[in-house]
Design goal:
The protein is mostly beta strands. The protein contains 3 helices and 29 strands. It has one domain (2-35, 126-155, 171-406): Pectate Lyase C-like, CATH 2.160.20. The chain has a 29-stranded parallel β-sheet that branches. The structure holds 2-acetamido-2-deoxy-beta-D-glucopyranose (4 copies). The active site is at residue 258.
């Protein structure tokens, strides 16, 4: 618990310093506190929801990115709907901070045939890459119009191109605040190779049965805080994947969906790592999993130093689950799972089988600590835990976890 808190505090401190520092640079270099603003309407965007406004956005972005004084701002005005084709906003930019004020709505083409892909750039609708100090806020909405993609199974319809709505690739010191993202064709937000991000007050919504509509996927990223947000989707609320560390998730409400997930790690024998993950004050309501760690059989690497603390469960199917798949043919290889803490987890499980710690026979899971767990069954029956090859401690646990020692 102390370790997790210190991760969060040192991280918040670092991020504050960074933003203050970046602001100071912006002011010092041009002696200007001004906000040069570039409104997409002035670049020919119509905002009628019908005409493709992508080119206007790209042109406005080029000017924002090229501005070296003040706080250059791309303005997407309110009460308008902007239809965008797959589009990419690239850096590096000249200013230390770039603002995107999204007040209106952005929508994707409503039918799959309407998507116009640049030749080799599929799988992402809106891409931000190689940008430092991007601040995106404004209370607006992003609508991926995902419905036709969710039911797409044929080869002729390019189902395999099903895109992520918003992807941040190679970013530094990103701030995303107060936005709504709905109905992405696939995952809503992807953070890949990002160092330093504060994501807060997001609302992500997709139907409970929409496939792969994760809220936020994180990979190869460090120093990320996701804070005060609500995710109602058809898949993971937040998924923390390979190469991620120092990730804090605080005050996030998940449900419906699949909960917060570390992994899957180690697919196809890959060596993958995740560490220093801190999840606090989160609610899982009607999710299939709560706090999940999943690794593939035959992989290598580790998932370690992971804390879930102050968690509320409402009708969660698998509240606490570690699934380190056992491979009878290749037990020398497994992604190591260690130093996992579950503290103060309470509420109801929709199944009686509330805790599953299923670890590999040879490698096992080590230093697993459960403290103050009280998971009761939503139907009033007694809950139980199952547990293979997990070592650690369980104190004040309902249900009791048989392979852990009582403190
Ligand atoms: C979470 O985000 C809010 C803004 O919604 C901010 O005021 C607060 O300080 C953040 N909390 C943490 C723990 O960082
Ligand atoms: C916990 O998170 C909720 C949002 O889900 C927030 O309203 C509340 O203030 C947080 N409580 C604490 C103690 O951080
Ligand atoms: C859980 O979700 C149900 C159904 O949406 C809702 O009625 C209830 O208020 C939620 N409970 C909590 C604690 O958020
Ligand atoms: C566990 O939770 C149940 C249901 O909320 C409650 O009745 C019970 O007193 C709790 N037990 C402990 C030891 O806190």
């Amino acid at each position: 618990m102390k370790e997790g808190n210190s991760i969060l505090i040192s991280f918040i401190f670092k991020m504050r310093l960074l933003f203050v520092f970046m602001g100071a640079i912006a002011v010092a270099s041009h002696n200007c506190l001004c906000t040069p603003t570039f409104n997409v309407i002035d670049y020919g965007a119509t905002g009628d929801g019908q005409i493709d406004d992508s080119q206007a956005f790209v042109k406005a972005w080029e000017d924002v990115c090229d501005t070296s004084y003040g706080n250059p701002t791309l303005l997407i005005p309110e009460e308008k709907i902007f239809l965008l084709q797959p589009v990419s906003f690239r850096g590096p930019c000249k200013s230390a901070i770039i603002n995107i004020e999204l007040k209106g709505s952005i929508v994707a083409p409503s039918i799959m045939e309407g998507w116009k892909w640049a030749t080799n750039k599929r799988h992402t609708w809106i891409l931000f890459s190689h940008i430092r100090g991007l601040v995106m806020h404004g209370g607006g909405q992003i609508d991926g119009q995902g419905a036709p993609w969710w039911n797409c199974y044929s080869n002729t319809n390019h189902c395999e191109d099903r895109p992520t709505a918003l992807r941040f690739h190679d970013c530094e010191n990103l701030m995303l605040r107060g936005l709504t993202s709905i109905n992405s064709p696939k995952n809503h937000i992807s953070l890949n190779k990002c160092n330093g991000a504060i994501v807060s007050e997001l609302h992500i919504i997709a139907p409970h049965d929409s496939p792969n509509t994760d809220g936020i996927d994180i990979s190869k990223s460090f120093n990320i805080l996701i804070n005060n947000s609500k995710m109602e989707t058809g898949d993971d609320c937040i998924a923390i994947n390979h190469g991620s560390s120092f990730i804090s998730i605080v005050g996030v409400y998940c449900g419906p969906g699949h909960g917060i997930s570390v992994g899957s790690l180690g697919k196809n024998g890959a060596r993958e790592t995740v560490e220093d993950i801190y999840v606090r004050n989160c609610t899982f309501n009607g999710t299939t999993n709560g706090a999940r760690i999943k690794t593939w059989t035959g992989g290598e690497g580790y998932a370690r130093k992971i804390t879930f603390e102050d968690i509320i469960l409402v009708h969660t199917k698998n509240p606490l689950i570690i699934d380190q798949q056992y491979n009878p043919y290749d037990s020398a290889h497994a992604v190591r799972v260690s130093h996992v803490n579950y503290h103060n987890v309470r509420g109801t499980s929709s199944s009686k089988h509330a805790v599953k710690l299923h670890c590999d026979k040879i490698i096992g899971c080590t230093n697993i600590v459960l403290k103050r767990i009280n998971i009761t069954s939503a139907t009033g029956e007694e809950t139980y835990a199952s547990c293979n090859n997990a070592k650690g401690v369980c104190s004040s646990c309902i249900p009791h976890v048989p392979c852990l020692s009582r403190e």
